[in-house]
Write a structure and sequence with these properties.
Strand content: 5-15%
Bound molecules: zinc ion
Order of helices and strands: HEHHEEHEEEEEEEEEHHHHHH
Number of helices: 10
Number of domains: 2
Largest sheet: 7 strands, mixed
Shape: elongated
Length: 311
């Protein structure tokens, strides 16, 4: 059987319990067919499977795939039980850090991680590390149990910061043994991935939405601008919710959400405004926020569905 260095690397990854799939030779992109050209055969017989579902640690499957070509190795982080912190380097001279890093000597993702470590009184984590083709680094961590982390990108959302992405469920990394643009990905710290440190997990964990204090006057002002018809309807429904006693409040909230949902579905009332107005009334009636949000979403969805069916 033909072998190639990439096949050897893919088998080694599988031996470590990692789930891999082929990337096009010399590239970072999956070599698997896409949903639009799915032949509905093999693994896709029951419906198309994307790379995350097809990633495997089965040596037989890996040998068969990699003997076709020296595919690069895609490592599906979530199914492999890994969270990978991707420390990138600037792409060009003007790719400079945001102003708040100015004067701190920050030039790349590793510098930002070092600054984060300092802020949190931690040392730079020593774990399995890969040097990427462009000179960045992938730090591998064992994923925590009981929390499903997804990818983060730079500073957005729960992201760690400039030039730092994280890859977990929904993400893959180019694994060592791959070669992109003639530059190899190489292991620079060959040790078992350590568990994701608690302070990093804390930063990456999606925050529960804080208890909303709905700014009732701002919501009322927004809705008034939508015209007297919508304004009256919202005032009527929210009053009904506020005046309903314990026991009937949740049903009332649902009915009012369904009523306003018709205005949302027709485009007369923006959904966020409807939700805010209903939420304000629900909280005032003494319902909890999570319960309110669920009921409102269900009520609005009921009307959206009814309009959809009628159309
Ligand atoms: Zn398919």
């Amino acid at each position: 059987m033909n072998s190639n260095p990439q096949m050897v690397a893919a088998l080694a990854a599988a031996e470590r319990g990692q789930r891999v799939f082929p990337l096009a030779p010399g590239s970072k992109y999956p070599a698997l067919h896409g949903e639009n050209d799915c032949p509905r055969t093999g693994g896709c017989e029951g419906g198309h499977l994307g790379w995350e579902r097809r990633a495997t640690a089965d040596p037989g499957v890996i040998r068969r795939a990699w003997q076709v070509a020296p595919y690069n190795i895609g490592l599906a982080c979530g199914p492999s039980g890994l969270v990978v912190v991707d420390l990138d380097v600037p792409k060009h001279r003007r790719d400079t850090p945001p102003a708040r890093w100015g004067g701190q000597g920050v030039t790349d993702g590793r510098d930002v991680l070092a600054a984060l470590c300092e802020q949190h009184g931690q040392s730079l984590p020593q774990t399995y590390e890969v040097r990427t083709g462009r000179g960045g680094a992938h730090l591998y961590f064992a994923a925590p149990t009981g929390v499903v982390l997804r990818n983060t990108c730079g500073e957005k959302g729960n992201g760690l910061g400039w030039k730092i992405d994280t890859r977990a469920y929904g993400g893959y990394v180019v694994a060592p043994g791959s070669v992109v643009n003639h530059r190899p990905y190489t292991v620079v710290n060959n040790t078992d991935p350590i568990r994701l440190p608690a302070w990093l997990l804390g930063l990456l964990t999606p925050k529960p939405t804080p208890t909303t204090v709905v700014d009732a006057s701002a919501v009322r002002a927004r809705i008034r601008r939508l015209g007297p018809y919508v304004d009256t309807a919202v005032a009527r429904e929210t009053a009904k919710i506020r005046e309903t006693g314990e026991g009937g409040r949740n049903d009332r909230l649902f009915a009012s959400a369904a009523a306003l949902g018709r205005l949302v579905a027709s485009g007369a009332l923006p959904e966020p405004d409807a939700t805010d107005a209903l939420l304000g009334a629900g909280l005032k009636a003494g319902l909890g926020e999570a319960e309110c949000r669920r009921t409102i979403a269900n009520g609005l969805a009921r009307s959206a569905g009814a309009v959809g069916r009628a159309a």
